[in-house]
Design goal:
Length: about 525
């Protein structure tokens, strides 16, 4: 069984970290140290499901797989956004499910959904629990109860097609588990979001996730060639061929559906041969604009490395602590480039990229910054907890737009966050994913926590979200909609778009038991 994350922090309990003394001084200087102890011993509310309904669940999945103990219900309460962590630390378990149900496969999931429809029980599919947009905090009003449908027992590699280079995976596999199974065949998926250690295959599909190597391997939705979902009104299997003209692509109805249309029970993905060689390095750019232009040039020339990311001046300064370290002038922006593949592929793409970046004015910094990034690539969420321990509000948000609007989007979102969080706050940004036509911007903020840090963040996030929509950008490039983004999502897709989604929901889930209040405006 997968190691469980700490209910109030990112990662398993043994992975918790503290700020080193050297950092404590800097944090004190920037924000002022405050103690922020977490509540222990909080218990979830009374179980709303009566014994006959619990027996109904037991009849489907077996007694051992219907869990109603406080500890398990606590572990399935919400996701891992900063507001989620702050609520958990405050002992707020109001969103706890009544029971956690663990089906063994597709047929049990289908039976569970039919049963839940008949008995009006809300169902929240649970993959890795790393959601950061409120997608695991479904509404329960009007329902007999709410269960977390935990996919933790569905972890098989169902098929590998070495001729077509595809693999079919069950949804409960976490990132490392899927990679380990594929490695047994010399393969990789190449999907490495920052949440890789705990997020699941089904979650990647349900949220249209994007990994840190998206320039080389593509977004998760681009890797999916077929999937199967159990819905309350039947099983949907989509993806018959590598490409086709058979009407609208119904895969796209399930990808990003966030558990509102059905439970994804298997995913067939395109796979690649595991890279024989990897190489990461750093570049210095005089400004965020110059580095972004270089990324655009590479993308439009079809010359992207496997990994490419660019920090703005503020993020560069914080990451390196000493900005002079990246060029002696005390300013500039750090770009990370990474290459994966055979030795020949790595050498030739690296040579092509190096030529272009050098011509555009980039300064090569060698392997050290790249290796440092590679080693620390999953580390930031642990640091967030350590900062929360000391009363610093840390959170992230992300968006995407076309290249021609990048500068305005960056300026407007940064201004919205800075003015909302006030003097002394830090607003950092990097370009996290690039395409021929545009890129995504990922913001990290840090500020001294006020009396109500959740409200403090909600005001800042609303201001940033308004700025995104006003700039013609998306409300989310890869974190998905959940409950948090719904108002802005409605503005993004317009009234007809909202009607289409509601119609699909009504067809697949007429009783509305699946993730009530999530995704659909
Ligand atoms: C520290 C941190 C870093 C992150 N970094 C990234 C990143 O780099 N890139 C990125 O894309 N995202 C990132 N995320 C967001 C999150 O990891 C992704 O959205 C991820 O895809 C969620 O997967 P999960 O298995 O944890 O899903 P969960 O959190 O369990 O669920 C997410 C949503 O999908 C639904 N769902 C889950 N499984 C299924 C299924 N099988 N069928 C139907 N619906 C389902 C849930 O009901 C919920 O609405 C990050 C999150 C954190 C906390």
């Amino acid at each position: 069984m997968t190691a469980e994350m700490h209910p109030q922090r990112w990662g398993t309990p043994d992975a918790a970290t503290v700020l080193p003394d050297s950092a404590l001084g800097l944090v004190d200087l920037a924000f002022g140290l405050q103690d922020s102890p977490a509540v222990t011993g909080a218990t979830p509310p009374r179980i709303a499901l009566d014994e006959s309904l619990l027996d109904g669940l037991r009849a489907i999945v077996g007694d051992a797989h219907v869990l109603v103990d406080d500890a398990t219900r606590t572990l399935r309460t919400r996701g891992k956004s900063t507001p989620d962590l702050l609520r958990a630390r405050a002992g707020d378990l109001t969103d706890a499910p009544d029971a956690v149900v663990r089906p063994s496969g597709h047929d049990e999931v289908a039976t569970l959904l039919a049963w839940a429809t008949e008995h009006r029980v809300a169902v929240v599919p649970f993959g890795g629990g790393t959601c950061v947009t409120g997608g695991l905090a479904a509404r329960r009003d009007g329902f007999a109860g709410l269960v977390s449908l935990d996919l933790v027992r569905m972890k098989r590699l169902l098929d590998v097609d070495m001729v077509s280079m595809t693999a079919t995976l069950e949804p409960g596999l976490r990132g490392p588990e899927a990679e380990a199974l594929l490695a047994g065949h010399g393969l990789t998926l190449g999907h490495y979001p920052q949440s890789f250690e705990h997020a699941s295959i089904g979650g990647f599909a349900a949220t249209r996730s994007s990994g840190q190597s998206s320039a080389g391997y593509g977004r998760f939705d681009a890797m999916v060639v077929a999937l199967t979902a159990a819905t309350p009104t039947g099983t949907m299997t989509v993806g018959s061929s590598p490409a086709n003209a058979a009407g609208p692509d119904l895969r796209q109805l399930l990808l990003g559906s966030e558990g509102a249309f059905g439970v994804i029970t298997s995913v067939t993905v395109r796979v690649r041969r595991a890279p024989a060689e990897t190489s990461y390095e750093g570049w210095r750019w005089p400004s965020f604009a110059a580095g972004s232009d270089a990324m655009r040039t590479l993308a439009q020339a079809g010359l992207l490395p496997t990994v490419i990311r660019l920090s703005d001046e503020s993020e560069t300064a914080i990451n390196l602590a000493d900005p002079a370290a990246i060029g002696g002038s005390g300013d500039g922006c750090l770009m990370i480039t990474g290459y994966e593949g055979t030795a020949a592929q790595v050498a030739s793409r690296r040579a092509e990229v190096t030529t272009v970046l050098t011509e555009l004015g980039g300064v090569p910094l060698g392997a050290e910054p790249g290796e440092k990034w590679s080693h620390g690539r999953f580390g930031a969420p642990y640091l967030r907890d350590a900062l929360l321990d000391h009363g610093v509000l840390v959170e992230t948000l992300e968006t995407a737009t076309f290249w021609s609007r990048r500068e305005r989007l960056y300026a407007d979102v940064k201004a919205a966050l800075t003015s909302s969080l006030g003097e002394g706050s830090l607003v950092l940004c990097h370009v996290s994913h690039v395409y021929e036509t545009g890129c995504s911007l990922y913001f990290t903020v840090a500020a001294r926590q006020g009396d109500d840090p959740i409200a403090q963040w909600q005001v800042a996030k609303a201001a940033a979200s308004d700025a995104m929509i006003a700039a013609g950008a998306t409300i989310t490039h890869h974190h998905a909609v959940g409950t948090d983004h719904r108002p802005w999502f409605a503005r993004e897709i317009g009234e007809v778009g909202v009607r289409v989604l509601r119609a699909v929901k009504a067809e697949l889930d007429p009783a509305g038991i699946l993730n009530p209040g999530v995704l659909i405006p």
